[in-house]
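Q: I have 197 residues here and want to know how they pack in 3D. Can you give me a structure?
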Amino acid sequence: MNLPNKLSIIRIVIVPIIVLIMIFPYAQLGIELGAFQIQYVTLPYKNVVVLVLFAIASFTDFLDGRIARKKNMVTSFGKFIDPIADKLLVNTMFIMFAVQGIVPIVGVLLMIWRDTIVDAIRMMVGAKGKVMAAGNLGKLKTVLQMVAIIAILLCNLPFELFRLAVVDFLFWFATFVSVMSGVSYFIQAKDIILETK
């Protein structure tokens, strides 16, 4: 297994660690977690730890693609595992936020549905021997999702100090771009999808 693929595996391994940190029953076990107090905003230490892990995982995403292309290490396994690692990381974070009531479940469902439909479209197109490259909207979607996750983990700091709901805007903007990128994929592949023969 080459280095880019190992980095993708590391990204996948980080996901359950993040989940464990976020859902661990600290209070029930009598464990008191501290927090940073920035004026009237409370930033739990737990969020900071998850943020560091998320940043490491996100960096491996950037790194594995860069190394694979530069060193000519692109493999079939890499093409398979990289998008899975990305979706596991991002979708897991949003699901955890929805479970905790931090973000609306509707937006999370829209993003997950979009990913499922796009994966199906890619499979149909692949079966015809064609390849659909990630478009600009798809890349923007990924960036916006990651920025939204970081903002949520930071409890909307520093914007919360000015009563600006930037995190809400980022979440819904990421949802909108996610849906629009899904529509874009459908339009590109509509001739194959709607083929009647």
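Q: Anything worth noting?
A: The mean pLDDT is 90. Residues 166-193 form the longest helix (28 residues).
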